[in-house]
Write a structure and sequence with these properties.
This protein is mainly alpha-helical and about 425 residues long. The protein has one domain: Up-down Bundle (Growth Hormone, Chain: A). It contains 18 helices and no strands. Helix 14 packs antiparallel against helix 15. The protein is globular, with a radius of gyration of 20 Å. The two termini are about 25 Å apart. The N terminus and C terminus are likely disordered.
Amino acid sequence: MNAPSTSNDAPAVRLGLRENLPQFVLLVIINAFVGAMVGMERSILSPLAEQEFRLAARTAVLSFIVVFGMSKALTNYFAGRLADRIGRKHVLIAGWLVAVPVPFMLMWGPSWNWILAANVLLGASQGFTWSTTVIMKIDLVGPAHRGLAMGLNEFAGYLAVAGAALATGWIAARTGLRPEPFYPGIAFVFVGLVLSVVLVRETSSHVVLESQSGRSSVSQPSAGEVFWRTTVTDRNLSTISQAGLVNNLNDGMAWGLFPLLFASASMGLDQIGTLAAIYPATWSIAQIGTGALSDRFGRKWFIASGMWVQAVGIAVVIESTSFIGFAAGGALLGVGTAMVYPTLLAGIGDVALPSWRASSVGVYRLWRDFGYVVGALLAGLTADLVGLAGAVWLIAVITFASGVVVAVRLDGTLRHEHLVYEGTRP
């Protein structure tokens, strides 16, 4: 990748969180607006499908998650490739431009197909914007604080998911499911786009600097080689990819089925909005600490035990019938996800070399967000066959099994990071 041209008065390029704090904080703020865009749907789209569009089958209700996940997964992959080729900032701006029609389509779409089309655009926007903020933060901080950087990035994004879910549930309880709950989305898009155009700086030069520190001795792999390494052939990268897929498999289930499960227990829209916010709020706050701790103690056992805690949280939700029980299960699910989410991203950064890291992140996020598709289809089909509880139990078992795979197969990726910097491979 070629370094971008810089003027003589451009600031010196340095790696590190403290050295790049203003840009890092700006990207954290932008990612909060990215998260808020998807948070708009979190508590009300499943009820909207049932109440306004009269969709009865769970698979049909969850179809918006399927198209969102497929669109986001594919866009993640291309975001990584494009970020390496044309620069991070251009991809970030493109993502915000794709999001411009989304709030209006959700507010005024006359049929369910309009809602699905809005989710195709939303998924593409999320793939470009969220992937790029992840890649740019990894570029800025260098290897020393990668877990902390990912924790802060995901903290901002998922705290905004929680806040938007809570806000839209509150608005919907007072005004109805459309159009008022989607009004904030117009502001989210406008502010995110303006900040990205005016204030964000390109980070490709940071990648060049890191490549010069000793990790550039290995030949540059092709796009196909990066794909197969991240998916199958590299023990660490492929294990991380499967864990990411299962993590979002259970998140897709929670997004689509939990509001229906809460409604079946006679929870109102206010309560459903609060419960839908507890899980991502816990997740967002806790992962500041878990990401930083994984820098110190390693990635493997944070990921494995986090998958197991997620499984326990899902089980608690299934067995509960009260608001307190649902809240406790959602909080446990959030803690488990916090142990996993930033740690997986940091693990990819440990193993992939700077010259192809953005592409590897894109492949990982392709498989991770494909979990939304698998989770929504699996949960919907199972719920139609055996009921909501059976579908949720199946997802809990799969999540636990994924943690076992990590425990057996994942090496210490921090050790890999240090060895690669010395010019060798474990």
